[in-house]
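pinned: reference chain
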Amino acid sequence: MPKIQLLPEHIANQIAAGEVVQRPASVVKELLENSIDAGSKNIKLIVKDGGKNLIQVVDDGSGMDETDARMAFERHATSKIRTTEDLFHIRTKGFRGEALASIAAVAHVELFTKPQDADLGTRIRIEGGKVVLQEPAQTAAGTSIAVKNLFFNVPARRKFLKSQQVEMRHIIDEFQRVALAYPEIGFSLIHNGKEVYKLYPENLFKRIGAIFGRKMHERLLPVGEKTDYVTIEGYTGKPEFAKLRRGEQFFFVNRRFIKSSYLHSAVMKAYEGLLPEQKIPPYFLFFEIEPEHIDINIHPTKTEIKFDDEATVYALLRASVRHALGKFDQMPSLDFDRDPSLDFSSLSQQRPKAVEPKIKVSRDFNPFKQSSPARIRADRKAVENYDDFLMPETAHPHTELISAASLPHDSTENPSAQNENSFQWNEKYIVTHTRSGLMIIHPYRAHQTVLFEQFLKQLQSGTVRSQNLMFPWEPDYLPGEVNLLEKYKEILQKSGIVFLREGDKIRFTAMPAGFETHHLRDFLEKLLADLSEGIPFDRQELLNRYLAVQLASASAVRAGTKLDETARQKLIASLFSLENPRYSPEGRKNFIILSENEIDNRFS
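pinned: its structure tokens
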């Protein structure tokens, strides 16, 4: 019996579907692109249960006659390609002729379509790749296609779909990409009967605002560069609006959304020296290039692309973004035409020298000396570079640092047990002596670990303490970000974070005791980044741990903070009172020990 056999058609179709249809968002992408290729002016997307049970696209495009409607579901049936040469001149979206056949192989599909000049349309129903009904039908001009019960005949695939919220997030991503590429087309999105987007035909700038909120307008700078090889147009973000999270970064080549770490690198190079570490600016950048210079057929979803001259594209992109930043005074520059009389040196010669103020400072002041609450409050104002971590425990409930006297004295790793002094090297690492050798402690990780244990216990017991804000904080969040926070409002309130929502505005009225506003800002930015990526919080213990890590990370002492001997000893004592002081909640080392032998070997 021969070992190699032809696959049955229904299995071959399901395998092909696995390449094209990975999740409901894949179906959305293919159907929206078909509507665009049909010349539609208005496109409606209707979704139920994150696309698991219904994805329907209704358009007013050219529609199809009876023959084309039936042929559209055959594999490799396409109106876009006649010769091999056509592959190198493609400007439409779909062209392989696989999408509808692949979708129909793993779902129940119902199609209504009618050409603009026809009196009667066509209805087709397909289940698992088999046509079960085809008949004439009264229907509006254009096409309506409904995809129901996705992966009904491939239960293993359906089982691996994510939650409704996560799948809907992917659908919204695909919807936004298509809507941005075609601002002249009207789009609407309805999920479970609720209108999510209603976008009217407009220009790109207004379309960006309609999707991401009007506040996005003030965050963007226009980009424009035209050469014989490629034209680059669009918008890039002002550096001060860069975020920790992705989600507002878009590349389009001939109106097709693409992903490219190579092009992203070019943008980030343009921002070199302008962004805080790990921050990413928003950008919406469009490339127009002759199709023969690109290859879009290198991935089934067509989101990857190759240029025949990548180096030129990289250099032009970097230069165009850099030019936009410089043109609108977003980066430092030297003005060689300035009036020399306005130079700092000239001004300093025209003015008398500043007189150093005489300030009396009490050199006996000690912020850690036990004192009354009233004295503590008065002394706070007198301390330069005062940090929450250094506050007495009566004033800072999250940093109850334990006395070294309460620790076991037989520990070979616990420096507090040996009453040794410590010093801080380069305002960074704490160096001290233990019986095992020379210990070097990472202050931020050590403090993060101490705070993590405290926050986790409070979250588990429901005793997280809040402090009301004298002046409520109103961050400038986009509508989508506000919606994400609203979903977790009750959970955040249990962690001490309280806010009110008014439309697309959000106002925070309380935060965990010991937090500062910048702690809250950092925590929320990380939380939004993770929520946008679809990180699941389906179990309370996982959520508690996540919140404890983020709260501790936001409020731990930062690198470069100078700690005096008392503060260092308190931190060491608190760290070594924990059951596992070696590692931070993120699994990184809190300290290292150089043994005497290791040090001796360095001198050998």
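why pinned: The CA atoms of residues 368 and 391 lie 7 Å apart. Residues 205-327 form a domain with the Ribosomal Protein S5; domain 2 fold (CATH 3.30.230.10).
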